[in-house]
Sequence to fold (123 residues):
Amino acid sequence: MKSIMKNTVVVALMFVTVASMANGPKGTFGKKASEVEKNLISVELDPVFKKKGGKLFMNLLNLDLEKVTIKVIDSEGRVLYRESYEGDLVIEKAFNFENAFSNEYTVLVVDNNKTFKEKIEVK
Fold:
């Protein structure tokens, strides 16, 4: 008899909790999804560069799906590599400088009129 009473109390408590959560806060009733999306925080994400020995790894989260250009330039300003991506959410690139000539190389990432640089020196 006590177990039936305990189970009834637990079920009633769960029902009240679910019913109160289903109603939601009073201020959100009738809002459109677009109004809620306008209040989201704007996130600025820079590319992440990681060096391991003579290799350079680059990751970029391209939330706006705009054009991203990656260039590798040597110390004399010559463009050794250029590639553009458009519509890709995640851009990952690995550069292997292990067999490159001794020089200082700069990897440029141009994303939505912002330029990011990472330098790597090969000795």
Remarks:
- The chain has a mean pLDDT of 83.
- The chain has two helices and seven strands.
- The first helix runs from residue 2 to 23.
- The longest strand covers residues 103-111.
